[in-house]
Specification:
Blueprint: E1 2-8, H1 14-24, E2 30-36, H2 47-55, H3 69-74, E3 77-80, H4 83-92, E4 100-102, H5 103-106, H6 123-146
Parallel strand pairs: 1-2, 1-3, 3-4
Length: 148
Amino acid sequence: MKRILFVCTGNTCRSPMAEAILKSKKIDGLEVKSAGIYAATGSEASAHAKKVMDDNRIEHNHLSNMLTFESVHWADLILTMTFSHKSAILQQYPETTGKVFTLKEFTGEEFDVDVVDPFGGNLAIYQETYRELDKLIAKAIEKIQSSQ
């Protein structure tokens, strides 16, 4: 069983979309969760994030979670939305070195390593973020499956 944790800031936009996209692929042997570095536990995904997932027929039922010692140690692989998220995790949990990557870093993107935060933006920005996440997650799946 491979456990993947997606991390963003508030766990209401990017990481819940990434979690839902990967879960929708129904890959055997893969367990997926998400968390936020500064999340308030129990908040729903943002309205635009839910709309975009509904429009793309992605099942979702999300309540935000704060990143914790338990969630960090539960994960085999932690994929962050930005370099600053990665840095914050490594600073607080230095023992996670080697299993924390930005999503773009993990998938081989060399430039512009951050997934843009749509928080507070219009529906079009959320749709763009969804498309970017969908493409990156497809690449991540290929990498994960080729390493098993």
